[in-house]
Amino acid sequence: MATALADLVATSAEVAANSARTAKVASLARLLRGLDDAEVGPAVGMLTGVPRQGRIGVGWRTLASVDVPPAGTATVGVLELDAVLTQLAATSGAGSVARRDATLRALFARLTAEEATFVFRLLTGELRQGALAGVMAEAIALAYDVPAALVRRAAMLAGELAHVASTARAAGAAGLGAIGLQVLRPVQPMLAASSPTVADALAETGPASIEWKLDGARIQVHRLGSEVRVYTRNLNEVTDRLPGVAAVVAALPVRSLVLDGEAIGLDDAGRPRRFQETMSAFSDELGQAGASLQALFFDVLHLDGSDLLDRPLRERRAEIERLAPQLVVPAIETDDSAAGDEFAGQALATGHEGVMVKALDSVYAAGRRGGSWRKVKPVQTLDLVVIGVEWGHGRRRGWLSNLWLGARDPAGGFVMVGKTFKGLTDELLRWQTARLQELAEHDDGHVVRVRPELVVEIALDGVQASPRYPGGVALRFARVRGYRPDKGPADADTIDTVRALLPP
């Protein structure tokens, strides 16, 4: 029996209303159990805010212009909505704007008010009801009686949950276990926690590879035969933006390869260019500025038919150093904090951010932020989301200047933790004024509220308790280091991370 979209929307509302993680998981699992086989993938994509069609060419302004009265009765099924999204994604060429508009009007004329709100938020990336990937993974495990760890690993390797959910329902644990790394299909990157000093990091990791922490953009490079693809940390393909990186990897003496590393701009002396210059080049969709970026790698996940994810880091490092020593991020192996501090000083003197301290026996836990990788940076930075911005005054009149910064709430949404207009060049001011007006939801002449899509890296001197903001914490001396086009809102630091910086 076909599942009504209304049932999915009701579950979404139930999840949003519950603050307890276990309650969210139970609600999602209950819905998943009642789905038909073909509905599982589309429903999981919709509930996590990631339709299986990806971007379908419909923006906020287009949707806002669809002004039709809501239907009085729910008649649309989950698969019907999925079919319409597929149709919209395939609509292109001459007359596509009019055809897309007609398709949307026909769809919204059949949606109830609750369904229309859900679809609007789904298509504009605003579906923040708390059904994040981690919660959904637990719900899949509960619904189909499979180990949660197996669901998480399969999702990391498959790159998305919809396929994993369908596999769990159809083939159980055996099917999930058969999902492996596939060259040319990106995997979720392994993430790092933070430590204040090298000594603190080594206390967590034991003997470690201490590596320069480059001030660039995280990339994952796949090669199969003569084909090379480059992906961002949020799994978007950017091969055309980084032709130099693709060419270097294409020249290596291998048949198949998956590398993890950074794209970075270096000057003639080998020092990193300004972070904003690297990010500007990285976001150049024509690949002209991106051609100036180089790649340095710190891990290898696959080599000539063999997956290396479960081999210890010391072995993976040895493989990449054997294959391409000229492309490897500088590192030492030690458990001596004094040696680590000296090496960190060299990294800072060269212009890099600090160091990464990685346990030599650690496996590559894709998508996990565990204790075996630690980052040590003398300047504290946070990745935050722009949730609003104020019009400037004086020399900045006519520009959107003072950014409102939000930390991600694990339960859904973003919590404001501060403002800043510092660190913005004229070039950035011009760019953000244009971009944030595209994301504007409300402008009262002073403050522009925007859709939370842009991630910005903020340097700060610490945080302090503050009743001014709803999270009870505020940034101290915040300044912009640069926007992060390689990251999405789901990659932003959480309010818990910000609160953890409060002095004891």
What do these coordinates show?
The protein is an alpha+beta fold. The chain contains 17 helices and 19 strands. Strands 11, 12, 13, 14, 15, 16 and 19 form a 7-stranded antiparallel beta sheet that branches. It has a 5-stranded mixed beta sheet with strand order 1-10-9-2-8, with helices on one face. A 5-stranded antiparallel beta sheet has the order 4-3-5-6-7.
Number of helices: 17
Give the percentage of residues in beta strands.
15-25%
Spans of at least 5 consecutive residues with low confidence: none
Span between termini: 56 Å
User: Structural class per helix/strand content?
Assistant: alpha+beta
Helix percentage range = 25-40%
Q: What best-fitting shape do the alpha-carbon axes yield? A: globular
SSE topology:
Blueprint: H1 5-17, H2 21-33, H3 37-47, H4 60-64, H5 78-90, H6 96-109, H7 113-123, H8 133-144, H9 148-158, H10 161-177, E1 191-194, H11 198-205, E2 208-213, E3 217-224, E4 227-232, H12 243-250, E5 256-264, H13 275-282, E6 294-303, E7 306-307, H14 313-323, E8 331-334, H15 337-349, E9 354-359, E10 369-376, E11 380-391, E12 400-408, E13 414-420, H16 426-438, E14 440-443, E15 447-450, E16 455-460, E17 463-465, E18 473-475, E19 479-483, H17 495-499
Helix pairs in contact: 1-2, 2-8, 3-10, 5-6, 8-9, 8-10, 9-10
